[in-house]
Amino acid sequence: MSLTIALNRGRILKECLPMLAEAGIEPLEDIDSSRKLVFEATGGHKLIVMRGSDVPTYVEYGAADVGITGKDTILEYGRDARFYERLDLGIGRCKLMTAMPEGEEMGNGPLTVGTKFVNISRAYFEELNRHVTLIPLAGAIEIAPIMGLADLIVDIVDTGNTLRANGLTARETIADISTRLIVNRAAQKTRFDDVQSLVNKLREVVAG
Ligand code: PRP
Fold this sequence. Notes:
D-Maltodextrin-Binding Protein, domain 2, 2 domains, six-stranded mixed beta sheet, alpha/beta, about 30% helix
């Protein structure tokens, strides 16, 4: 039997396609040069390409059997998600961090926080007993403090170049991030052999 695999477009897609190819799953046409979103692949598998934040949704509801997306996306989706996280693919490594303008201090007063990761941030600051006002943003989070929209941000930090270029410094690490393979709960049982075969092959690719 074949699997329907939801893939996070962008950087993660680029890095996971060679891994899937090594595991024997290759799209029958070039994903980069097509506007299509669903691709037939070797082994009768199907690859569907979507925004990262939709990958957990497709997998939770079983529209995809498995999905590949970042741990940040999974955490933001929620802790009680109804899917299994089966494998760390070891790619897309970065950190989810707080960051502030250089030289500024957090102090003890109320803070405004600009972020794409509203759920993660809420949980993080609640745990710290910090009162914060969350300002949801869709991208270019690093400009929020410069423009006076937020005191600090919660965002992905890889090289740190974007922070530096915008006069910000990283503060606390909230989570270590990498790309994960998630599996629909029903598929884990009803398609056990296919799921297990994919997990095992990808595990070998990661180890190799
Ligand atoms: C991410 C993140 C930062 C940047 C960090 O954005 O939101 O802006 O990468 O990388 P760095 O530490 O190496 O500078 P991405 O390019 O993925 O685009 P996005 O704004 O759509 O998330």
